[in-house]
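Justification of computing resources. Each target in the renewal requires a structure prediction run like the one illustrated here; the chain below, 95 residues long, is used simply to show the kind of job we budget for.
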Amino acid sequence: MISYKERSSEVELMDDLTLDQSQIKAVLADINKANRLLGGNRITLKAIQRLANKFPRTKYRIVDMGCGDGSMLREVAAFCAGLGINVELTGIDLN
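Resulting structure tokens:
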């Protein structure tokens, strides 16, 4: 069984800039699926809603470092639009 008590120092597959596009797409698809199925996206969206309620502003800026293919940012955009929350979204990723 894998222990998660200590942080791994191994290089992540996504940090390998020599991966070809098909490998990157496959890894990103797996990450997106895991986030959807395990609730990672839902946690983020609920946190954004709580912060917006606690700290009302006319506009928010969110920067996603390591955004992969930007799927989370697209979900944030749709979620915020549905709630009438004005956001400026920026995604940064090496791939």
